Amino acid sequence: MNIFYPLQVFAGWLTYSVFNISPNTTLSSAINFFIYDTIKIFILLVVIIFVVSIIRSYLPPEKIRAILSHKNKYVGNIIASLLGIITPFCSCSAIPLFLGFVQAGVPLGTTFSFLVASPMINEVALVLLLGMFGWKIALIYIVSGLLISIFSGIIIGKLKVENLVESFVYQNTINADVNLPAMTKKERIVYARDYTLDILKKVWLYILIGIGVGALIHGYVPSDFLALYAGSDKWYAVPLAVILGVPLYSNAAGVIPLVSALTEKGVAMGTTLAFMMSITALSLPEFMILKRIMKTKLILIFAGIVGVGITITGYLFNFILK
Amino acid sequence: MKIEVLGSGCPTCKKLYEITQKAVSELGLDANVEYTTDVQKIIQMGLMQSPVLAINNNPVMVGFNSDIEKIKGIIKRNI
Q: What are the angstrom distances between the C-alpha of A35 and each of A9, A10, A215, B34?
């Protein structure tokens, strides 16, 4: 049974009885869709971000570093990617994270695994995927995201690109075992509550606009309209989606609801997944910031490997999910 | 007394600098708030997040917070 069934009833009641819009019209279908999706997404956001923040209060980046500096290569890549899931990513912290990892002796490949997973598998994207596409697609996204970060890190580690990192990075070394003051239970809850509110404040408008435009598309654009241009038989759709995703990072919260409506109108699922991964994992502002600590060539290698990984994932799921 | 905001030069870090300046002047403290983008200093403190609010080279708040009252409280407790 669908746990959101009561919401469906509520959205229907609001649309047909309160707003008095007659059923089976495009307007009522768009409004019903908008009310239902908005409430559902916001409930999921509050619950999931709160839970993730509580878990995170036990694993701040400083602790993650202590764990990673004691792991060998392959295990390190896997653990770094898994820990990347719960770590929020702000381009503000990209440089301190990178320096902190590398100077504490965490291998470059492991550091990159973390740098890929952290923004790609973030809780806002997960909530939207779960809410708009269901748990199966959300799970596919997590698993392929993890595989991409693990393998990108392993490949970068094998390439021996240490010489492409600015030399000042290696001039300092630090001890990874720092003791942070422990948090009380109450502090963790306050932290999680503040963090959840903070994220909601940041994304609510984008999400509303995204769902709103999505609802219009849902109601007014004929289904399969886009299959002609972006169906699974179109080879160019996946790479195009990956390239389009690069400049869109800051608006990921608004783009996902929009994309879900486009999928309904015939964009293939693999293409959609590739588009969302590219939006979250490849971000232009982050590349600009990373230029301060590494050569452009390394940024291009990093973006290239992740981009190819995402493209392969897109083709794979276009093939499987036909 | 040295009150310092350390950041990587991102907009959030600058915002914390402005809020901290305001907090210090509202508290009537005779102290200068410094802003530095020397990330290595953050790393030396054992931290990996930005921005950081430090008093006399001790990190007292990690990460951004827009609540000026909270920042005032942290400053009062650490001077």
A: 11, 9, 9, 48
| CB burial string B23-38: b at 16+ within 10 A, e below | bbeeeebeeebebbbe
| Alpha-carbon torsion (A205, A83, A246, A243), positive or negative | negative
CA distance B53 to A3: 44
Q: Which residue of A has its CA nearest to B43?
A: A100
Say which of B7, B8, B48 has its CB closest to residue A62.
Answer: B48
Helix axes A135-158, A73-86, angle to 10 degrees: 140
Complex-level ipTM beyond the 0.85 threshold:
no
Question: What residues are paired with B60 via a beta bridge?
Answer: none
Residue A182: DSSP 8-state? P
Strands (E) across A33-135 are located at none
Whether A203 and A42 have beta carbons less than 8 Å apart is answered as: no
Neighbour-count burial of A50, counting CB atoms closer than 10 A to its CB (0-12 exposed, 13-18 middle, 19+ buried): middle
Residues in chain B with CB shorter than 8 Å from the CB of A103 are 43
Work out the number of other CB atoms within 10 angstroms of the CB of residue A168.
11
C-alpha distance from B79 to closest chain A C-alpha (Å): 19
pLDDT band at A297 (very low <50, low <70, confident <90, very high): very high
User: pTM of the predicted model, to two decimals?
Assistant: 0.83
Residues of chain A contacting residue B5, judged by C-beta atoms under 8 Å apart: none
